[in-house]
Amino acid sequence: MVLDAATLISLVHTFGYLGVFVGSILTSLTLFIPVPGFIFVVTAGALLNPFWVGIAAGVGAAIGELVGYPIGRGINYGLKKKKKIRQNKGMFKLIREWFNKKRGPLIIFLFAVSPLPDDFVVIFCGLIKYDAKKLFLSLLAGKILFSLALAYAGYYGIEIASGFL
Prior knowledge:
Elements: H1 5-15, H2 17-28, H3 37-47, H4 50-65, H5 68-81, H6 84-87, H7 89-112, H8 119-127, H9 132-164
């Protein structure tokens, strides 16, 4: 299956909100390869109810982004095997505690609510064994807000554009 704009739009036409959900998962699964999922959400917002598009796309994107978490955990495991973490155990503990107590949820949310690449943050969370539930909730809040903004931009953009025609 080729992941291009036509495929994603056909998902929306064929499956509606479920297609938006699946399309958002697919566009978020890619690590470090930018797939323009935002264009998909903007277009879906113009075709369907933008509120439900934002919810479906946000939940799908949050689920898709979690693919980086087990990669980070695997890196952690590999470093333990090579005894790299044992040498820096105090540093990892300090970073984990700071991230948990201070700014972790805010950092995750800010990356999720913006077009910044949040793959690095999710992998980092796996590396420091950040609580997966907290990670998902912060991702979910950010992705839903971002997707709602995109869906409404598509909805109102089509209305504005049709006014000029």
